[in-house]
Amino acid sequence: MAPTIPIPTQGGMFHTFQGVTPRKASTDSQDSIKSSGSGTAKRITTPHACAECKRRKIRCDGQQPCGQCLSSRAPKRCFYDKHRQRVIPSRKTLEALSQSLEECRSILKRLFPTHEVQSLLPLSRQELLGLLDRPMIDTSVGGLPSPPLNTSPISDLDSPTILKTENLLEQMPSRDTEWDEERRGRDPIPAEADDINALSLSVDRQQSYLGASSIKAALMVMLKVQPGLRSSLAAPLNNVEMSNNYPVIRQKPTAPKDLQRIPWSWKGQTLIDAFFKRIHVFVPMLDEGSFRADYLEGQRMDAPWLALLNMVFAMGSIVAMKSDDYNHINYYNRAMEHLPMDALGSSHIETVQALALIGGYYLHYINRPNMANAVLGAAIRMASALGLHRESLAQGASGSDIAAAETRRRTWWSLFCLDTWATTTMGRPSFGRWGPAINIRPPEFGVAAGRDSSQHAGILPLIENIKFCKIATQIQDMLAISPLLRTEDRCGLDNQLVNWYTSLPWLLRTTDPCAEPLYMARCIMKWRYQNLRMLLHRPVLLSLASSGLNPHTQACDADLAAIETCRELAAQTIEDVAREWTRNQMSGWNAVWFLYQAAMVPLVSVFWQWGSPRVPEWLKQIEAVLDLLEVMEEWSLAARRSREVVWRMYEASRAIQAQQAAHRSQSPTMHMTGDGMLMSDAALHMSPIGLEPVEGLGMMGMLDQGGLWDLDGMYWGGQAADVAGAADFAACAGGPGSAGHDGMMHMDYGMMSQAHHQAAAVAMDGFPYVQ
Q1: What is the dihedral of CA 406, 408, 412, 415, to 10 degrees?
Q2: Among 632, 630, 600, which residue's Cα sits nearest to residue 618?
Q3: Highest mean pLDDT among 29-43, 184-198, 213-227, 624-638
C-alpha cells in the first residue's frame, strides 16, 4: 500500500507562496481594522474633484454631492468635469500638422512679404485687404511676387489733372489701330525708323500699345507743353529721297529650301570669332566648343543647326563690320528659310537659341521692335515646352549630362535677360517671365569656364545680369500698372538697384584695363543700370511737366528729389557713354540707344522750364549728345536717325529761347508766370495747354514755315525758316542744297550758346528767376 502524503492545512507556511494574489481579508477582519484605526486621521484621496472644490482649491471626498458642497454656507451645484484622456499624437499626425503650418506660413509670406505675423494679428479684415492693395516690394531678388492692382499714390483721388496725365503717359490704341513695321517696303520711310522708339515721329497715327517708360511718352509730354510742335511734327512728306541700297528682307521663301551642308570657310570662321568675342559674353547660351567643332566638321545639315549657324553669322557680321554693311540681311534671310511656321512646334533647343538671337537682338537692330517682341515671346513659350524653366531632378553625374544641364540653364536665363532688356522701355508688362513656377537654377560659375571666349569674365556677367533683370521685371510690371508710384515704393525699388550695383564683383565695377569682352560687358551693364534708374524716376518729371504745375510751389520734396535724380542720371549717362564707348557696333549700338533715352530728360526740361537758369546746362547736354551721335553714325544703324530727332527737338528749344529773348527785350512790361517763367503782356494770352501764344508768334508760327519737319521721313524740305528774333540759329537750318552733313550744317554750339545767353541776360536783367 502506497504511503500517504499529508496535505498541509490552509494556514501552512508553504501555502502562502503558492498563489500570486493573496486572498482578501474577511469582512470581520476588515471591520476590526477600521475600528482599530478610527482613532488616527487618514487623508482621503479621490481621482477627481468637483468643479467647486477645484475652484476653491480644497479637499474633495469625491461623493455626489460632496461633503464640502453640502456644508457650504451658500450651497453650490456639485458637478464633475468630464475627464479628458491625454492623447499622444502619432508621428504621421505631427508631420501633417507641420506641413499644414508651413503651407499657411508660405501663403502669409506671399500675401504680406514685408509684415510679421504678430503685426497682422490686431488688424481688421478691411485693414488686411488694404495692405493687399498696396504694392509688395520684395527686398530680395530671389522671389518676385505679383504686383498689386493699385500702385498709384494718388489714384484714389478723382483728379482730372492726374487722370489726364496718366492717359498721356499711356498710349492706348483705339479699335481701328493699325501698325505695320514692314511698310518700309512700300512707303518712303527710312529703314532705321520705327514708331515705338519715336524715330518716325508720327504723333497722330494710331500705333501699338506703349507705356510710360517709352520714348513716345516723353514726346507726347513735349507736345503738350509746347503745342506748336504738333504741326511741325505732323507736316507731310515733301520731296523725300530714299536710298535704295538697303537689301530687301524676304518674309516668305519662294520655294522649300533644300537642306545643304555649310562647309568651313575663313569668312565664316571670322564671323563666328566676332560673335563669341562680342555677343557671347552677354548671352552665353551656346556651347562654344561643340559649336565650333560642328562647324569645322561641316557635316550637319538639319534645319535647327542651319538656322542657328546663319543667325550666328548675321550677328557676327553686324559686330565685325560698320553700320553701312548689309551682308547680315543675307544671313538672316537664309536663317528664316529654315524657320517656317511649323518650326515653332519643334523640340530642338537650337531652334530656341536661333529665335532668341532673332527676337532678342537682330530684329531690334533693324528696328522691328514689335516683331522682335512677338518672336522672343514665342521662343520663351517653346523653351517652357522643352522644360527649360524647371530644374531637372534626373540629372546624371557624367560630364555630358552636366554640360547639357548647364546649356539648358544658360539658354533659359539668356532668354530671360533678352526679354527684360528689350521690353523695359516699351512700358508693357512682363507677362510672367519670372514667377514661383520657374525653379531653374542660375548658371554655375566655373562649369565649362575654359570653353568660353570671355575667359576673364566667364559666366559672371550673366549671373549678375540675372539679378538685375529680376529687379527690372518688378519695376516693369509696376510701371505697367501705374506710372505714378508711391514715394516709398519708388525709393525702395531704387535702393534695390543701388544695392545691386554696389554689390557687384570687383571685376565688373573696376575701371582697370581688361579684355574687350569684359570691358563691353561692364560698360553696358552700367549704362543699363543708370537707364533703368532714370526710367523709374522719369514719370514724375513727365507728370509734373504735363500738368502745368509749378515745381517750386506745387510739388512735394520727394517729387523734386525724383526729378533731380532723373536729371543727374541722364547727365551721368551722357558723360559715361562719351568716355567709355568703343568703335564697334555692339558698343555703338547700345551707346546710341542709351544716349537717345538720356537726351529726352534735358529736352523735356528745356521745353517745360525754359526760364530756368539751368537751361544752358541742359542745352549743353543735348549738344554733347548731338556730337556723339554724329561720331557714332559709322557704328550704329540708328545713330543718324536718332541724331535727326534730337536735332529737331534741340532746334525747337533754341527757337523758344531766341523768341522769348526778343519778346522780353521789346516789351517794357514783364510778368512772372506760375512756372517761374517771364512773359510779356502779349504773350500772356496762351492756349489752355502749354505756353503757345494765340497770336502765332511762338512755336506754331516759327516752325510752320516751309515744312521743316515731316511725319515719317523727317528729312529737310522747303526753305529755311526766316523768323524774326531767330537769326542766330536760322542759318544752321539749311535746305537740301545747304552745306554740311546730309543737308544739315554742323553747328558751332559754343558761339550760339554765348550769343543767346548774352541776349537772354540783357533781356532778363532785373527779373530774377523764381526758385
Answers
A1: 100
A2: 600
A3: 624-638
Q: How far is CA 87 from CA 84, 93, 94, 194, 312, in A?
A: 9, 12, 13, 74, 70
**Cα–Cα distance between 606 and 599 in angstroms, integer?**
11
210, β-bridge pairs? 171
Query: Cα(521)–Cα(243) distance, rounded to whole angstroms?
Result: 34
Spatial contact of 156 and 484, defined as CB atoms under 8 Å apart: no
For residues 184 and 167, give the distance between their C-alpha atoms in angstroms, rounded to a whole number.
30
Q: Which of 254-268, 416-430, 724-738 has the highest mean pLDDT?
A: 416-430
User: Which range has the worst mean pLDDT, 185-194, 206-215, 544-553, 725-734?
Assistant: 725-734
Contact 636, 592 (CB under 8 A): yes
Grid cell listed for 473? 521685371
pTM for the whole structure: 0.65
CA distance 357 to 385: 19
Q: What grid cell was written down for 490?
A: 519708388
| Dist CA 28 CA 31 (whole Å) | 5
- Residue 750 has a pLDDT of 46
pLDDT, averaged across the chain = 73
Is residue 116 classed exposed, middle or buried when 0-12, 13-18 and 19+ CB atoms within 10 A define those classes? exposed
Coil, strand, or helix at residue 686?
strand
Run of H or E residues at 618: helix 615-631
Check pLDDT > 80 for residue 466: yes
Determine which of 233-242, 352-361, 696-705, 745-754 has the lowest per-residue pLDDT on average: 696-705
* Short-list 166, 224, 223, 218, CA closest to 479: 166
- Burial letters 452-491, b for 16+ CB under 10 A, else e: bbbebbbbbbbbbbbbbbbbbbbbbbbbbbbbbbbeebbb
Give the pLDDT confidence score for residue 728 in this predicted structure.
37
Give per-residue pLDDT as tens, 639-657: 998 998 899 888 888 877 7
Residue 526 dihedral angles phi and psi, to the nearest 5°: -70, -40
Which pLDDT does position 51 carry in this prediction?
84
Helices (H), ranges, 77-233: 91-111, 117-120, 125-132, 160-169, 215-225, 228-233
Q: Which residues pair with 680 in a beta bridge?
A: 670
Burial readout 714-748 (b: 16 or more C-beta within 10 A, e: otherwise): bbbbeebbebebbebbbebbbeeeeeeeebbeebe
611 contacts 761 by C-beta, under 8 angstroms = no
- The mean pLDDT value for 563-573 works out to 96
- Cell matching residue 404: 547639357
DSSP per-residue letters across 380-436: HHHHHHTTTTS--SS--SSHHHHHHHHHHHHHHHHHHHHHHHHHGGGT----SSSST
Q: How confident is the model at residue 83 (pLDDT cuts 50, 70, 90)?
A: low
Burial 674-703 (b: 16+ CB within 10 A, else e): ebbbbbbeebeeeeeebbbbeeebbbbbbb
Q: Which residue has the higher pLDDT, 158 or 705?
A: 158
With cut-offs at 50, 70 and 90, classify the pLDDT of residue 132. confident
User: What pairs with residue 463 in β-bridges?
Assistant: none
